[in-house]
Design brief:
alpha/beta, 262 residues, 11 strands, 36% helix
Length: 262
Amino acid sequence: MKSLLASHPKTLIGVVHLRPLPGSPRWQGNLEAALELAVKDAEAYERGGAHALFVENFGDVPFTKTSVGPETVAAMTAAGRAVRQAVKLPIGFNVLRNDARAALAICAACSGSFIRVNVHTGAMLTDQGLIEGDAYHTLRFRAAICPGTEIFADVHVKHAVPLGDWNIEDSARDTMERGLADALIVSGSGTGMATDVADVQRVRSACPRAKILLGSGVTLENARDYLNVADGLIVGTSLKLGGKLANPVDSKRVAELVKAMR
């Protein structure tokens, strides 16, 4: 199966931020409404020309550093199936904060193509506490249930700091060469926060053959700065109406960014 990132000179992956799901503190008791909003956002990304979609349980704060509950997996699978039926774009899953096995299982159930893993190798101090990578089990679980699924792994993920004196170059090399990630993600310090171009350049220098994605803070205004050194963009916040995270996706904003990427 051809890699998603090999299918386009520069790839735009839109993020479908799911509303609070069953079991989360802000759950409103209406899964159908949450699924409807997810489908509308997915369709807006497709109309605008995005190349793929990430579906993530963004509304489930606070997140766990360990495995999510079965109710989250069930709800995300329902969302994934609804999105899969509504659009033709490749889809992937990010199960926050770091449940790679759940993301792979959902991919297997929803014909997903890729997952995002916030901490794939090494250890990060996060708002959930200490999270350790588990590439060993993630790769073996992938081989067992969905061997074609790609793993996009963060390097010094947002909302976290590395444990110990690990520079971003060493972390990138370990994630790619020892964690066998299919692509590396570089982001800013938090959701919607711009990525430091120098960080992307350092990862590119350390891993010249790697596929590199930008994981936060990309806007129409700064996209070109990143595309000189990155292979694709993962974008959510700036593609919402008015650039506001809580708003629906604006297909016109998506189209403008796609045009700027050409």
